[in-house]
């Protein structure tokens, strides 16, 4: 009996289980244009409200994977391992991690995304480098990986095209925040890109995409399970995102900070999270090497420069800077007890570092620098935040976002761990 789109919608609307045939019919039809956008939007909303069972999710992911090409990286001569972060504020870890793990001897084919709302995007950050292009032909990826060891680029139309079309629809229909839809989107692209091992950085806290610990843990478990089902050895770390990671939040500002880490300096929290993920990645890759020693040696910085050049960029070119820097000062003397990651991210977004829609342009220079971080002593009038402004009309909105974003108390706050849990 032929599958009918209205039967599919009714089944999921009423909490039923979709068959493999129904899932394949609707996703293949949507990719081909025979299932209308409004029908797919209705199904996505039903999935948000009703969820997908394990069997449904496995089939959903497989169909998206089957919609395009799979990259074969088996002949590289390097073990292939990748990383995915669910996104946060000041999260420039990929800029350090990919060249670091490549310098350890692995191949890292990272398909990255753009920022949306308060969370930054890796591609937007790298595009602050003169000449760098996020577009790398699929056929060129194995060559660059063999020569350099790492790639960070945008997803090709050839890899999981069903996911690309579906994500664009979810973005404008309030159906992004669904654990099964997020998990299938991530894993379809990762499996298609040829990785055989994957480390996940699932953020938890106010600046995270899924701030609640229970939902973040659910997403981590779901991703690990999907990885296992598709033959990808997968480990997930839950990491804290109540406070911005590092001090820089903004595209060129974060590239500058990432280079500082690659040079052996940079903020301690960025180094800690990067090394925690790097150790997991080299272990999955079967490499007997200490990432901390490789980072200290400078080899990761050389690899970063080679990655930038391989995609048309000039690592020696000066990065854009904002024409105006506006300070936000401490109201009292004491210790910075709290600095809300989401508020800082929204401020950077309103200054132009992020976008409201995927097609919006971003400013490479705009952003926020956290001069003080929680636990540090401040005096009344000290600068806590610097707003890097290249459009004065955006300043008032950014300042409004920071109202109540931080707190100064007489005593320092308790030290909280950055790595909260590990799931396999």
What does the main sheet amount to? 4 strands, mixed
Give the tally of structural domains: 3
Q: Given this structure, which CATH class of the largest domain is correct?
A: Alpha Beta
Shape: globular
Low-confidence stretches: none
The CATH superfamily of the largest domain is Nucleoside phosphorylase/phosphoribosyltransferase catalytic domain
CATH architecture of the largest domain: 3-Layer(aba) Sandwich
Strand tally is: 13
CATH-assigned fold name of the largest domain: Pyrimidine Nucleoside Phosphorylase, Chain A, domain 2
What structural class should be given to the helix and strand makeup?
alpha/beta
C-alpha termini separation: 41 Å
Specify the number of helices: 16
Q: Give the % helix.
A: 40-55%
What Rg do the Cα atoms give?
A: 22 Å
Topology pattern, helix = H, strand = E: HHHHEHEHHEHHEHEEHHHHEEHEEEHEE
Mean of residue pLDDT values: 94
The main sheet orders its strands as 1-4-5-13
Strand content: 15-25%
């Amino acid at each position: 009996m032929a599958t009918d789109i209205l039967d599919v919608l009714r089944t999921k609307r009423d909490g039923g289980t979709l068959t493999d045939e129904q899932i394949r019919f609707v996703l293949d039809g949507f990719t081909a244009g025979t299932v209308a956008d409004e029908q797919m939007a209705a199904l996505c909303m039903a999935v948000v409200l009703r969820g997908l069972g394990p069997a449904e999710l496995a089939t959903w992911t497989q169909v998206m994977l089957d919609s395009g090409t799979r990259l074969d990286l088996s002949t590289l001569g390097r073990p292939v391992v990748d990383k995915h972060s669910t996104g946060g504020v000041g999260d420039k870890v990929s800029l350090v991690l990919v060249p670091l793990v490549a310098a350890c001897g692995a191949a890292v084919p990272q398909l990255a995304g753009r920022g949306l709302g308060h969370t930054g995007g890796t591609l937007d950050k790298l595009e602050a480098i003169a000449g760098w292009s996020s577009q790398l032909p699929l056929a060129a990826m194995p060559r660059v990986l063999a020569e350099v060891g790492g790639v960070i680029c945008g997803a090709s139309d050839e890899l999981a095209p069903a996911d690309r079309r579906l994500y664009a629809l979810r973005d404008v229909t309030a159906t992004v925040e669904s654990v099964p839809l997020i998990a299938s989107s991530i894993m379809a692209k990762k499996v298609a890109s040829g990785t055989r091992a994957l480390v996940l950085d699932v953020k938890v806290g106010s600046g995270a995409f899924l701030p609640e610990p229970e939902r973040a843990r659910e997403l981590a478990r779901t991703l690990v399970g999907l990885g296992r089902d598709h033959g990808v050895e997968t480990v997930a770390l839950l990491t804290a995102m109540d406070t911005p990671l590092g001090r820089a939040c903004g595209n060129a500002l974060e590239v500058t900070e990432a280079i500082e880490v690659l040079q052996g300096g940079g903020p301690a929290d960025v180094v800690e999270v990067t090394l925690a993920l790097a150790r997991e990645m080299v272990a999955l890759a079967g490499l007997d090497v200490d990432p901390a020693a490789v980072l200290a040696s400078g080899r990761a910085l050389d690899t970063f420069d080679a990655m930038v050049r391989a995609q048309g960029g000039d690592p020696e070119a000066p990065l854009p800077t904002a024409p105006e820097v506006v300070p936000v000062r401490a109201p009292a003397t004491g210790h910075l007890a709290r600095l809300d990651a989401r508020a800082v991210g929204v401020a950077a977004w309103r200054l132009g570092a992020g976008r409201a829609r995927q097609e919006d342009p971003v400013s490479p220079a705009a952003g926020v620098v956290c001069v003080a971080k929680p636990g540090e002593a401040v005096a009344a009038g000290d600068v806590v935040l610097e707003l890097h402004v290249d459009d004065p009309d955006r300043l008032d909105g950014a300042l409004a976002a920071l109202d109540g974003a931080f707190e100064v108390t007489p005593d320092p706050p308790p030290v909280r761990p950055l790595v909260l849990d590990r799931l396999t």
